[in-house]
Specification:
Length: 357
Amino acid sequence: MFGFRGRLLCAALTLGARLQAAPTLTTIEDTLFTADGDRFNGVVTISWQSFEAADTSNVAGDTLRLRITNGILYVQLVPTTNANSAAIYNVQYTSQDGIQFSEAWEVAPGILPVRVRDVRVMPGSVTGSAPAAATTLQISDITGLQNALNIRLTSGTAFSVLHAAVINSTGSIDGAVGNLSDCLHVDGSSGACGSGGSGASGTFVDGEIPFGALDGSNTTFTLANAPLPASSLALFRNGLLLQPGADYTLSARAVTFLTATVPQPGDLLLASYRILVSLPGVGFIDAEVPSGIINGSNATFTLSQIPTPATGVSVYRNGLRLASSMDYNISGNTITFLPSFVPQAGDLLQCSYRIVQ
């Protein structure tokens, strides 16, 4: 009889010890709303991987579904912030309209109820409890760590403080190299300000009004600079492109009009040109006359090289600039005029464009 009672007492003590081993819980209690102020109605699904709680209780991986009515949320969960192994709760909200969104929870121990804002993990945050002594963790063991590392740039071999940051070809950060007076280009190189890019030099002049009296008798006008090369000069009178040799001559900065083309009062002169412009990989073709018979029926003309880009071609007919796709089409180095714009006998065609070198 005594032996039976002894065994019964041992069983009771064992059961009591097991009941005491249940992990403590934290209460999450809150009211959920939608963005328009209505109370949330739907389902909240909470899932987690297995982990060991702070009291060494083994929490098996599982999923918990909560029906939310009139926005009332109440749930009790094992704390994860002090867990012996990394743990996090993945929470998915599904409204009664079928709209879904998710977030992560990290639950701290406590005897007082907490709200969702107290357990919500911000995007990009790294979660997980501190490992026990002599425990080795892999990056994958910490939820969110790999994603957090992926969105952070690393220091490159040329990283330097107090320098402008440059992203190198491997996606790491280097320090810009150059003089304090240099400008930083978009490709990460540096050079004198105004150079327009690495290895670039020279100047573009656009829309300059030549100096000189517009009185109907003055034939000489002066540019602010000498165009280099001279063929880069595009001189317009009242919007029409003039022809060197036929309408004017150029000597250094001086533009001299021929007798028949002397500007009259009220005329507008505009000049565009280059001054020793050098761009790596870019060449310029100025005032080229395309090959082809100008007889009123031939619509196809050929350039000496392929313009790059094709949209950079300027096509002039008797000094008037034509419009691509409306007056002509271009494919490779072939210009095809539309039927209504086929050059007639006596017309002058002239093209300027850029090429790849």
